[in-house]
What we know:
With about 325 residues, this protein is of the alpha/beta class. The chain has one domain: Ribonucleoside hydrolase-like (Inosine-uridine Nucleoside N-ribohydrolase, Chain A), CATH 3.90.245. It is built from 13 helices and 12 strands. The strands form 3 sheets. It has an 8-stranded mixed β-sheet, sandwiched between helices. A two-stranded antiparallel ribbon has the order 7-8. Strands 10-11 form a two-stranded antiparallel ribbon. α1 packs parallel to α2 (about 50-60), α1 (about 15-30) packs across α13 (about 310-325) and α2 (about 50-60) packs across α4 (about 100-110). The radius of gyration is 18 Å and the shape is globular.
Amino acid sequence: MTVSRPAVLIDCDPGIDDCLALVYLAGLHHAGEIELVGVTTTAGNVEAFQTAANARWILDLCSLADVPVAPGQPGPLKVDLTTTPETHGPTGLGYATAPETAAAAVTAAGDRDWRQMWVEALEAHADLQLIVTGPVTNLAAFEETHSPAAAQFGAISIMGGAVNYRGNTTPTAEWNFWVDPHAAAQHFHAAAANVLTTLCSLEVTEQFLITPQRLEEIMEVLGEHPVTQILPEALRFYFEFHKAQGEGYQAQIHDLLTCMIALGKVDYAATETTMDVEAQSPLLRGTSVADLRDHWGRADNACLVTSADIEAAHQEFARGCALLASH
C-alpha cells in the first residue's frame, strides 16, 4: 500500500526564523516526507512583497524553483502595518539581502493570487496542512471570503500568542498577534469545530535556541549547500538583536519549532482549550487568553502546545539539513 506524503502549505513572513523553517521544510520535501505545495507570505517582519522575495530566494537556493510563492494581504485587517527592521534587518533576513532576481521572479508571477493558490491546494489535497508562522492576516481574510472552504484544511497550526506568559512586544502580547490582533481574534472566533488550531505560543517556542555553536554544527551538516550563503549573515544579525535585548548571544527560532510540531516530528504536550485574542484595547492589544478552566462555556477551538522536546527538535533540524544537503 502506498501512503501519500502530507501536503503542506506555509503562510509566513521571512523573517530569519521563517527562513530556517523553509530550509527545514525543503529538506523534508526533497526526501519525500512532505509535499510543499506552496508558500504565501504576510506583511509582518517586512512588507508582503519583500517577504515573498525572501521566500523565493530561499526556495531557489534549496532547488525548489517549482514551488510557487505568492505575496498575500499588504497589511493588517484594521490597524497600520508595523515592521521589525531592528529584529530582522531592513529587508527581513538580517545582514543578508535577497537578490533582484528573486524580486523579479515574484513580480513575473504577479498574476498568481494567493487566495487562488489556497483554493487550488485545498481542491488538490484532501488533508492539506496549513502552517502559519507570521501574522494571521491571510488566514482571517480567507475565512471571510471562502467559508466553508477554510474548514476543509486537514490541520491548521499557528505560531503566535503568549499564553499566561510575558510578551515579547508588550508586557502581555507576542509579535504576530500584536501586529494584526483583529485577524487573530477573528480566526479563533471563526475556527471550525472539527479543526482545532494547534497553537505554538511564545512560552514554548522561545525555548528553541540556536547558538553560534549550534549554527556551526548545522553548517557542517549542510556542507557546501548554497543555503550556507545566507545562514551566517542572517543569524549574526539575530544573535546581535537578542543580545541587545538581554537574551544572550543566541536566537529564538519560533517558526522552525512550530513546523516540527505541526508535522509531528517532535514529541510535545498540548491541551484542548478555548483561545481568544484582545483586539480592541490599546493597552492589551494582541494579548492572547486561554480559557483553561472553561469560564466562558464556549467550545474548544485550539490545541495549545504546553511543552516540546527541545533537544529532539535540534536533532530533527540537523536531520532536515542532512536531507537537504543530500539532494
